[in-house]
Specification:
The complex is a heterodimer of chains A (319) and B (136). By secondary structure, chain A is of the alpha/beta class. Chain A has 12 helices and 9 strands. Chain A has helices at 16-22, 27-34, 48-52, 71-83, 92-96, 108-118, 170-181, 198-201, 247-250, 268-279, 287-296, 300-304; strands at residues 4-10, 35-39, 59-65, 68-70, 84-90, 133-136, 139-142, 146-151, 161-163. Chain B starts with 9 loop residues before the first strand and ends in a 5-residue tail after the last helix. The chains are: A alpha/beta (319), B alpha/beta (136).
Amino acid sequence: MAKLKLACYWAASCGGCDVAILDLNERILQVADLADIVFWPIAVDFKHHDVEAMPDKSIDFCLFNGAVRNSEQEEIARLLRDKSKIMVAFGSCAHLGGIPGLANFGNRTQIFERLYLEAQSNDNLDKTIPQTSSKVSEGELELPEFYDTVKALNQVVEVDYYVPGCPPPVPIISKVIDAIASQKLPPKGSVFASDKSLCDECPRTKGEKRIKKLYRPHEIIPNPEQCLLEQGILCMGPATRGGCGALCIKANMPCRGCFGPLPSVSDQGAKMLSALASIYDIDIKDEVAMAQMVEEVVDIAGSFYRFCLPTALINRRRM
Amino acid sequence: MKKSGFEPKILAFCCNWCSYAGADLAGTSRIQYAPNVRVIRVMCSGRIDPTFILRAFQVGVDGVLILGCHPGDCHYIDGNYKTARRIHMLKKMLSQLGIEDDRLRLDWVSAAEGKRFASIINDMTERIRALGPFVR
């Protein structure tokens, strides 16, 4: 069999997904046996124009990580879509919008003001902010356009498969590589994870859930045997797809929801809100307690939509 | 759209045991109220998933009204208590998403309160009219 052609790209991401691929350790050699890397900015020295020169659908699979928030990322997403047979949204940002998606609580103007004008570490007396084109003595310089709204990959191009996680755990990456190598691919649109919630695979003991108060992780040392929600720690498990192996839970940390909503759920944040409000054991006529409940979940929307705001039903703040 | 020509579209979820019967009473008593409301009957206000509310806004409703039994009167004992906590939390979340507080309202209407049902609908309609259409 001819070797497969593999492309990887990072758009609006932190680079953790690329490192996750390298975390395959010795299995990366199998990947190298299986596939030729034709484009991977973090690892190999092929350029944009090298990809442009390839015939359409000549890349067998593309692992695309990161959200899309500027015109360059969108252009490369479209280019790689044209050149690839299989497009994989790799990691939470490409899958759901991820942490960069939280920028949808603001817009470009607010983000630029904060980053380039207000941030204490800035040294920007000329109050320069990025422009799509600027004239300098050598000629005109161009920068990609920064969008107001962050998008997940499938809001820009057609996506064949989703690999969730921030970053995707190594066993799941192995599963993807095996599926591609053996040509035993699941139906298009599949997410490489469990179809059940994280609670289903969580090893902790679970009883009836009633909480009076919510604690932030640093305020309490949780019992490692008991359900974290029952101990008053905001754990996104009930509203989050399983398949990660409960990594955070095993480290005594609550789930933050990076695997996204369950298969039939359109809005992870709404589901988590529903679950959490249901187990609060407070009197609704006690206004003080009700106000306190809302304050205890510090940054409700940011916590419940931590990884999925761009793909939520209301996918950005109305400005 | 001119604001004067704006007719709010309001979605009301009414629980089967109290509020829907209250709406029925408003009808059989021939009480006049604003025609801006579309009613969906649910067995209990506790059935209302916050997803329904977000979906309603997403598809272009201007306001969402949740009506349930008065506290203590829930046919399922504590469904409306859960709803109250959910809506309270959801309102905070909606404010972070830039959705005005008046666009979502939770209230209690018993089966005997046809008049109250009508006055809530009228009040909600006027509040939404003042806010203008919900533009995503």
